[in-house]
C-alpha cells in the first residue's frame, strides 16, 4: 500500500483493486494499444491487396513478441510521448523503432496506416473493458449471487416478520427475502455476460477516407469487420464494429454496460441496507473477531462496517457510472476530446465496485441468523395474521370482516388471546373457528419456502 496515493483505490484498497491494474493502468492502456497496432499491421500484410507484402510466420511472431511491455519499454514510450505530446503517436513510433532493425524495416510505415488515434483507442479500451468484466467483475458478482443463494436455501423456511412502510406486515421467510436479491442480480448478470462492446475503426471522420483514396478497389468495410472479429478469439465479451460513426464511437454500448452495472450496484445498495436493518434488529448477529475494535469510545460495539463500506463504495461507483452515461453520448460535431479524459476513469468506477463487492462478501462471511430473536419479534406481532383471518371470513360469507378486524387491531397492541376471543364471537362453524385458531404468525408464510 502506498501511503502517498491520492486515491484510496491505489492506497488503502490497493490489495483489493490491484487485480484491475492489468486492465486499467497506464501501462495496460499502452500494452493494449500496442496489441491493436500490431494486429492491424499483421492483418494488412495478410490482406494481399495493397503493396504491403505478406509477412512470414517468423515476422508475425516478432511483431507479437512486442506485446508484452517491459518496464523499460513502457518508460521509453512515455519518453517519446514527452516529445510528441501524443500518446498514440508515441506507441506508433515505439513499434517503428523496435522493428527498424528487423526484416520488417521497409514495412514500418504501414503501422497506423489510414487510421486516427481513436481507432486504436476505441478497440484498446473495448478489449480492456471486456477483459476486466470477464475476468474480474462478472465472476465477483456471480460469487456474490451464489453466496446469497446459499443463504436463501439454508433459511428458505425460517419465518420472519415482514415490514411494509416500516410497519409489521404479513410474514415471510428469511430465505425467500434473500432469494429476491439473488434473482434480481442473476437477471442483470445475464444481461452483462452477453453484451457486445461497440468499437469504431474507420479513419479520421468515420468514412475510410484515407484507406479509400489510397486503395479504392479494396473493400475496407469488409476488411474492418473482419479485423475486429479476428480480435474476438477466446473472448466471451465480443467486440463489434459500429458503422457508420463520426470520428468516434458514440459510446452507446459502453453506456448499456455501465447502466447494467449501475443497476447491479443499486440492487446491492438495497441489499446492504436491508442487512444493516436486520443487524440493527438483532435478527442477524455479527461474529466477534478477536482483536478487532468496533468503536474507539464504546467497547461493546460490533459495527456492520463491511456493509456500510460496501454501500458507500457502490454509491461512488454509481456516481461515476451515471456520469459516464450522461456525458459520453455527447460530442461536439464529429468529435471533441472531452470523452478521452473521462474514459481514463472507467477503471475507477469498476474499482469502487470491486471494493464494494469484496466488503460485502466479507460481511456475509461474518453474520449468523438469530433465530430466537427473529421468532420472538414475529410472535410479538400477532396482528399480522388478520389478513389471513379476514380472507377466510370473506370465503365464509361473513359481512365486513376487514372492517371488524380493523376495529380490533388498528393502532392497538393485541395478543393472540385477544384474537382468539374475537374468533369465539364470530357466527361461523366450529370447524372454521378451529381453522382460524390454528393460524399463527410463524405458520402464516404462504408459499414462501417454495419460491426459493
Properties at a glance:
452 residues, 3 domains, two-stranded antiparallel sheet, Ribonucleotide Reductase Protein R1, domain 1, Fumarase C, Chain B, domain 1, mainly alpha
Describe the structure.
This is Adenylosuccinate lyase. It catalyses: (2S)-2-[5-amino-1-(5-phospho-beta-D-ribosyl)imidazole-4-carboxamido]succinate = 5-amino-1-(5-phospho-beta-D-ribosyl)imidazole-4-carboxamide + fumarate; N(6)-(1,2-dicarboxyethyl)-AMP = fumarate + AMP. GO terms for molecular function: N6-(1,2-dicarboxyethyl)AMP AMP-lyase (fumarate-forming) activity. With about 450 residues, this protein is mainly α. The chain is built from 19 helices and six strands. The longest helix has about 40 residues, at about 115-155.
Query: Which class of the largest domain in CATH terms?
Result: Mainly Alpha
CATH topology value of the largest domain? Fumarase C, Chain A, domain 2
The CATH architecture of the largest domain would be: Up-down Bundle
Shape: elongated
Mean pLDDT: 97
The radius of gyration computed from the alpha-carbon positions, rounded to a whole number of angstroms, is 31 Å
Strand content range: 5-15%
Number of structural units classed as domains: 3
CATH H-tier superfamily of the largest domain: Fumarase/aspartase (Central domain)
Could you give the order of the helices and strands?
A: HHHHHHHEEHEHHEHEHHHEHHHHH
Residue windows where pLDDT falls under 50 for at least 5 positions: none
Protein name: Adenylosuccinate lyase
Family: Belongs to the lyase 1 family. Adenylosuccinate lyase subfamily.
InterPro entries: Fumarase/histidase_N (IPR024083), Fumarate_lyase_CS (IPR020557), Fumarate_lyase_fam (IPR000362), Fumarate_lyase_N (IPR022761), L-Aspartase-like (IPR008948), Pur_lyase (IPR004769), PurB_bact (IPR047136), PurB_C (IPR013539)
Catalytic activity: (2S)-2-[5-amino-1-(5-phospho-beta-D-ribosyl)imidazole-4-carboxamido]succinate = 5-amino-1-(5-phospho-beta-D-ribosyl)imidazole-4-carboxamide + fumarate; N(6)-(1,2-dicarboxyethyl)-AMP = fumarate + AMP
Amino acid at each position: 500500500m502506498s501511503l502517498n496515493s491520492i486515491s484510496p483505490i491505489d492506497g488503502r484498497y490497493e490489495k483489493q483493486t490491484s487485480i484491475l491494474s492489468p486492465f486499467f493502468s497506464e501501462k495496460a492502456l499502452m500494452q493494449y494499444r500496442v496489441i491493436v497496432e500490431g494486429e492491424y499491421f499483421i492483418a494488412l500484410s495478410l490482406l494481399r491487396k495493397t503493396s504491403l507484402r505478406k509477412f512470414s510466420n517468423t515476422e508475425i511472431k516478432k511483431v507479437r513478441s512486442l506485446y508484452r511491455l517491459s518496464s523499460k519499454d513502457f518508460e521509453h514510450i512515455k519518453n517519446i510521448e514527452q516529445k510528441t505530446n501524443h500518446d498514440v503517436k508515441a506507441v506508433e513510433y515505439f513499434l517503428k523503432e523496435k522493428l527498424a532493425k528487423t526484416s520488417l524495416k521497409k514495412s514500418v510505415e504501414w503501422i497506423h496506416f489510414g487510421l486516427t488515434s481513436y481507432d486504436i483507442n476505441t478497440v484498446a479500451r473495448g478489449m480492456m473493458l471486456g477483459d476486466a468484466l470477464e475476468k474480474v467483475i462478472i465472476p465477483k458478482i456471480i460469487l456474490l449471487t451464489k453466496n446469497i443463494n446459499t443463504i436463501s436455501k439454508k433459511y428458505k423456511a425460517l419465518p420472519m416478520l415482514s415490514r411494509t412502510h416500516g410497519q409489521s406486515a404479513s410474514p415471510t421467510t428469511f430465505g425467500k427475502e434473500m432469494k429476491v436479491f439473488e434473482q434480481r442480480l442473476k437477471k442483470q448478470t445475464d444481461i452483462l455476460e452477453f453484451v457486445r462492446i461497440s468499437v469504431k475503426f474507420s479513419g479520421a471522420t468515420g468514412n475510410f477516407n484515407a484507406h479509400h483514396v489510397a486503395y479504392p478497389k479494396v473493400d475496407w468495410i469488409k476488411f474492418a469487420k473482419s479485423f475486429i472479429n479476428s480480435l474476438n478469439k477466446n473472448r466471451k465479451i465480443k467486440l463489434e464494429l459500429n458503422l457508420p460513426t463520426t470520428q468516434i464511437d458514440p459510446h452507446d454500448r459502453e453506456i448499456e454496460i455501465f447502466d447494467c452495472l449501475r443497476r447491479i450496484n443499486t440492487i446491492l445498495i438495497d441489499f446492504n441496507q436491508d442487512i444493516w436493518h436486520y443487524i440493527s434488529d438483532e435478527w442477524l448477529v455479527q461474529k466477534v473477531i478477536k482483536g478487532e475494535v468496533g468503536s474507539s469510545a464504546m467497547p461493546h460495539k460490533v459495527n456492520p462496517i463491511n456493509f456500510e463500506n460496501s454501500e458507500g463504495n457502490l454509491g461512488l461507483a454509481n456516481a461515476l457510472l451515471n456520469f459516464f452515461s450522461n456525458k459520453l453520448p455527447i460530442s461536439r460535431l464529429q468529435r471533441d476530446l472531452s470523452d478521452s479524459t473521462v474514459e481514463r476513469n472507467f477503471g475507477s468506477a469498476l474499482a469502487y465496485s470491486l471494493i464494494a463487492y469484496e466488503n460485502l462478501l466479507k460481511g456475509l462471511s461474518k453474520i449468523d441468523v438469530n433465530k430466537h430473536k427473529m421468532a420472538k419479534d414475529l410472535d410479538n406481532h400477532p396482528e399480522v395474521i388478520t389478513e389471513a383471518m379476514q380472507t377466510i371470513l370473506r370465503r365464509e360469507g361473513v359481512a365486513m370482516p376487514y372492517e371488524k378486524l380493523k376495529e380490533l387491531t388498528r393502532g392497538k397492541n393485541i395478543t393472540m388471546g385477544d384474537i382468539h376471543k374475537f374468533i369465539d364471537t364470530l357466527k361461523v362453524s366450529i370447524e372454521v373457528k378451529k381453522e382460524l385458531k390454528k393460524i399463527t404468525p410463524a405458520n402464516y408464510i404462504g408459499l414462501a419456502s417454495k419460491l426459493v
